[in-house]
Amino acid sequence: MKEYDVVIIGGGPAGMAAAISAYDNEGKVLLIEREEKIGGILKQCIHDGFGLVKFNEQLTGPEYANRYIDEIKKRKIEILTETFVLKIDEKESFIMEFMNREGVQKITTKTIIFATGCRERTSKQIFIHGDRPAGIYTAGTAQYFTNILGFLPGKNCVILGSGDIGLIMARRLTLEGAKVQGVYEIKSEPSGLTRNIRQCLDDFDIPLYLSHKITRVFGKDRITGVEICQIDENFQPIPSTLKKIECDCLILSVGLIPENELIQELGIKINKFTNGPEVDNNFMSTEISGIFICGNAVHVNDLVDYVSESGEIAGKKAVEFIKNGEKTFEKTSVVFDEQFLYVVPQYYNKNTKEDLLFYFRSKNNFNDQKINIIINDYIISKKYKKLKSAEMERLTLKNDFESNLKKINLQME
Amino acid sequence: MKIENIKKQIEKKFGNKISVSEKNGAVLLEGKLNKWEEVIFCGKIAAKSEMHRGVINKISVEGIEIPKPIMPRIEDSIFAKDNYDVVIIGGGIIGCSIARELSRWDIKILLLDKENDFAMHTSSRNDGMIHPGIASKPGTKKAYYNVLGNKMYSEASKELGFDFKRIGSLIMYDGWYMRFLKPLIGQRAKKNGIEMEYINKNRIKEFEPNVNSECVGAIFLPSTGVISPYKATFAYAENAVQNGVKIGLETFVKGMRVENNVISSIQTNRGEIFTKLVINAAGVYSDEIADMAGDQFFTIHPRKGEIIILDKNTHGLVNSVVSKADFLSKKNTKGGGIVKTIEGNLLLGPSAYEQPFKEDYSTTESSINSVFEKERKILNISKNDIITYFSGTRASTYKEDFIIEKSQKIKNLVHAAGIQSPGIASAPAIAVEIEKICVNILKSMMDLKRNNKFNPKRNEQNISAFIDEKERNRLIHENPDFGKIICRCETISAAEVKNAIHSVIPALTIDAVKRRTRVGMGRCQGGFCTPLITKLIHEETGISYTEITKKGLGSNLLVAETKVSEVDKHERV
């Protein structure tokens, strides 16, 4: 059986960054990807806007991916594409069984980094009823059809959900000559980035309808229309607003779900707010030492730059974990008040000497909001002009505390 | 009950709106009422007549138009003047298993279905449970064929190569009345020939530790099994085709030429077909087929049911089929429950309610919610565990029993009709019975010989859900495509998809590939694999992208090619 220090599952932005950083820290690395090429979902994101934080440039998805692919090639990192992980056993080290065109193989590894990304929520998962006609796609599937295969999923489209991929597809389909009748969002606020609302909808005169819900689809063979209504503050349909809109295509951008099924088979629990496993500041699982999780598998990010960042940390820390030889760590729980939807990481290693880094989302939208971060006996305050639940925030803090981290508390004032 | 009493009962409720008469040995109901429930009510009363073999319920409802069957859009004459020994109408599990059993004989068989693929209706719209046979009254055809069919699945699944597992079932109860019912249920089990055991609360916990039950006890039925109903249907169909059965898809029976109580030919949208014998296995439309032959004596009232599919990560919550008894209810349903499928998903339901539409497979919020709420009481699940849901209609007659017989009126017609639950469980036994009936009829018409080339084993490769490392390795070394995963949620390989596309019954639509392989049935519901399957269908068959459909004519996936640049155009030429 081949032995590795770090095996990374998933060759998207998180996994690529993790592979490079683990390699640079002198780990024996294997990167496993189930598709034909590494790059993940970036391969089909031909729009720009990637890399502003990381490279201070506006790159397209494939360009952003290529920066990492080039680095991987330079380092001659071992990659297995079209390879599918079947099973992981936790022994002294981890035994991983996977398959590809060569057959079923087993390897052992000291650490595993899960960079498995996320999947899209489907129409049935948001309880749209009616029959099952063709022409209902998640935005990512529609994007694959349009950008990779070169075919239009519809000519007269309705988009449900104002997630970023939905907004991007509204523009993309318009550019390809399709009519996009509108984007309908159940919440009273858009869920995508403000810049995407502006660049993808406003610039193309595509209307955005907030507090709207699709209640059923029509059509038996191919979709012929949808039933739309406004909803009240309890998300209940207002019957008087019910109307039917004709369309030949319904695109859904109604949320992403971190893909953590493999990790769950190891017995690791999923946090119900992040939909990902709980991690410490090294992106290591708080339940099984040696298991790391990064990128959208931990929580859904808005920007790929932060996905890469978490991969980079996980890769480096996985190698450090092996070198240290320590298996147990004293941890401090990150406590936050109810104005936060979630904060990642959920735990800090007490003796961490590195600067502190938090990703968080607020539950609601706030203007001029102050956040107090209480570390041990210190209170550090940060001011935010705008906090939106739709936009993830990244917060860093210099670690110049003399003692160990005994208390970490985030509060909104 | 006598027909006079039936008349009285109906008159009491609906005055003279309904006429009650006799036709073809059945009670005939005619007239107009205000609600569908009233139509069902009348049918049920009429079914109480022991003197009549069925109920023909022609009562219509003000404001409800019953749609005609959805017809294929093809019109051609590929079967014009073709001669067959047997024509089977209906390609569900009943028609397909009959075709397979009859292919043991050296005869010309044609298996027809109006859809572009088999198992498009009830056979793919159920929970795949192989019932033990406790729910049916002793002496009914349902009880007889269910118990026999259940036993036959051990052998059939091996021969035809599909997964079958006896996972057992628990019917939990909490009622005081069980004291009185216990001996009765025990007697029924004995009469039907079913193994069963009463278990107490503690044993329930041992069997099903995650089921929150206030129940005092349960009936344990070890013979209950599960299969994939659509995969099993294709196993039968493919084996039938291998053994010489011809198939006619998108072939709709429009009428029959009947002379002297003999069907001489069948009119279809693809030509007139001549045959010695006709088998009616038309499911929810079996009453209309009987009518075409002039032998209607029953009406199908489609009882709809909805089923919820949970994510596979809930697979550990139950080990068997679990339900809560509802012995006091008089509803015609097994009551629904939690079924652990052969692939490890949990299914909730089905519900059961009367409604007039045979092919309406839409779902509604209220019915899905009620299915979910019912099972949530005994299992710790959340709505986030739901990956999808679907509906189907049961081909129930008012007598609520199967019709498995040679027509009493038409000399060359055999009915395998009114097959509702437990139809899947009964299919192997029904098929053998119909084979016997047909052989008897055919013997009088021709010199009947065995098909000496008959091979009971299916050639098509089936990948078991329980495949081990060794077997997978063997397959991959034979064909590396077995190592390339297309459907990540269900671990389905490119080889399996290609095999389905090139099967003896080719799968040329997304749903057809799905029914044979399960691609797209997992938690992402085809989000990742639909484009990949589309690409494979295109590459393997040459069908252009814009012509590839989800489930046949009109359900195209893609509408146009994206803008082609001048440079591209040049290169493509």
Write the layout of secondary structure elements.
The complex is a heterodimer of chains A (413) and B (573).
Chain A: E1 2-9, H1 13-24, E2 29-32, E3 48-50, E4 59-60, H2 61-75, E5 78-80, E6 84-90, E7 94-100, E8 103-114, E9 118-120, E10 129-130, E11 136-138, H3 139-149, E12 151-152, E13 156-160, H4 164-175, E14 179-184, H5 194-201, E15 208-209, E16 212-218, E17 225-230, E18 243-246, E19 249-252, E20 256-258, H6 261-265, E21 291-293, H7 304-324, E22 331-336, E23 340-344, E24 347-349, E25 356-362, E26 366-375, E27 378-387, E28 393-397, E29 408-412
Parallel strand pairs in A: 1-2, 1-8, 2-5, 8-21, 10-16, 11-19, 13-14, 13-19, 14-15, 22-29
Antiparallel strand pairs in A: 3-4, 6-7, 7-8, 9-20, 16-17, 17-18, 22-24, 23-25, 25-28, 26-27, 26-29
Chain B: H1 3-14, E1 18-23, E2 26-33, H2 36-46, E3 54-61, E4 82-89, H3 93-102, E5 109-112, E6 129-130, H4 141-160, E7 164-166, E8 169-173, H5 178-192, E9 197-200, H6 201-207, E10 217-221, E11 225-227, H7 229-242, E12 246-248, E13 253-259, E14 262-268, E15 271-280, H8 286-292, E16 301-310, E17 321-324, E18 337-340, E19 346-349, E20 353-354, H9 365-376, E21 386-396, E22 403-406, E23 413-417, H10 423-443, H11 469-478, E24 485-487, E25 492-493, H12 494-501, H13 510-517, H14 530-541, E26 560-561, H15 566-572
Parallel strand pairs in B: 2-3, 4-5, 4-15, 5-12, 8-17, 15-23
Antiparallel strand pairs in B: 1-2, 6-11, 7-11, 8-10, 9-10, 13-14, 14-15, 16-19, 16-20, 16-21, 18-19, 22-23, 24-25
Helix pairs in contact in B: 3-7, 3-10, 4-10, 12-13, 12-14
